[in-house]
Automatic annotation (TrEMBL):
<keyword id="KW-0811">Translocation</keyword>
<dbReference type="GO" id="GO:0051028">
    <property type="term" value="P:mRNA transport"/>
</dbReference>
<keyword id="KW-0539">Nucleus</keyword>
<feature type="repeat" description="WD">
    <location>
        <begin position="53"/>
        <end position="86"/>
    </location>
</feature>
<dbReference type="GO" id="GO:0005198">
    <property type="term" value="F:structural molecule activity"/>
</dbReference>
<dbReference type="GO" id="GO:0005764">
    <property type="term" value="C:lysosome"/>
</dbReference>
<feature type="region of interest" description="Disordered">
    <location>
        <begin position="173"/>
        <end position="194"/>
    </location>
</feature>
<dbReference type="InterPro" id="IPR036322">
    <property type="entry name" value="WD40_repeat_dom_sf"/>
</dbReference>
<dbReference type="GO" id="GO:0090114">
    <property type="term" value="P:COPII-coated vesicle budding"/>
</dbReference>
<keyword id="KW-0653">Protein transport</keyword>
<keyword id="KW-0813">Transport</keyword>
<dbReference type="GO" id="GO:0006606">
    <property type="term" value="P:protein import into nucleus"/>
</dbReference>
<keyword id="KW-0677">Repeat</keyword>
<dbReference type="GO" id="GO:0031080">
    <property type="term" value="C:nuclear pore outer ring"/>
</dbReference>
<dbReference type="InterPro" id="IPR037363">
    <property type="entry name" value="Sec13/Seh1_fam"/>
</dbReference>
<dbReference type="InterPro" id="IPR001680">
    <property type="entry name" value="WD40_rpt"/>
</dbReference>
<protein>
    <recommendedName>
        <fullName>Protein SEC13 homolog</fullName>
    </recommendedName>
</protein>
């Protein structure tokens, strides 16, 4: 039987579009049409507001926590065509990076599995998906874009779980090991297999290899 444990009075002034717990389940982030992102500390059975993040100029549609190995890092996306990364340091949340890579509303954002490094994807009503990657802990970012991903706009994006190189899965969901035919390259590092799924206003879902 499912029961309500707690009810959080967020004090948002408009509709809440998304809510996400962090990796440890001790913090809750929410976002709203009131253009704000809020972070709550849930420890001890309480709901303490620790951050009221203002930076977007339109409704905030979705939020995503990064894996804690990258620190306390939260991404938000908005109707204002932007993605903002928020970072907590010594108890203070601040706007860390701002990305303006789309020509219309950014509807979805999600960090990739931590094994892939510091990476996230953002989906937009302009029909494209941007993939942003940092190899130096956020100092600089490489941006790639899937243009024309969905003709009528992209509404959702999700990463598949990490799959190590040389591993495959058969139809019975049993792991199968694939070995390289070139023993000289067997010790060379390989990029992990990454899969991304998107859903659009064209009634299609597409799976991408990144």
């Amino acid at each position: 039987m499912t029961t309500v444990v707690n009810t959080v009075d967020t004090s948002h002034e408009d509709m809440i579009h998304d809510c996400q717990m962090d990796f440890y389940g001790t913090r809750l982030a929410t976002c709203s049409s009131d253009m704000s992102v809020k972070v709550f500390d849930l420890r001890g059975g309480n709901q303490k507001l620790v951050a009221d993040l203002r930076g977007h100029e339109g409704p905030v549609w979705q939020i995503s926590w990064a894996h804690p190995m990258f620190g306390s890092l939260l991404a938000s996306c908005s109707y204002d065509r932007r993605v903002i990364l928020w970072r907590e340091n010594a108890g203070q949340w601040t706007q860390w990076h701002e990305f303006k890579n789309h020509d219309s509303s950014v509807n979805a954002v999600q960090f990739a599995p931590y094994e892939c490094g510091l990476m996230f994807a953002a989906a937009s009503s302009d029909g494209s998906v941007s993939i942003l990657t940092s190899g130096n802990n956020g100092a600089t970012w490489d941006i790639s874009k899937i243009t024309g991903a969905h003709l009528m706009g992209v509404n959702s994006v999700s990463w598949a779980p990490y799959i190590a190189p040389h591993s495959l899965f058969d139809n019975g969901d049993h792991q199968v090991t694939e070995t390289s035919g070139d023993p000289q390259n067997s010790g060379a590092p390989e990029r992990p297999h990454m899969r991304l799924v998107t859903g659009g206003s064209d009634n299609l879902v597409k799976i991408w290899k990144c």
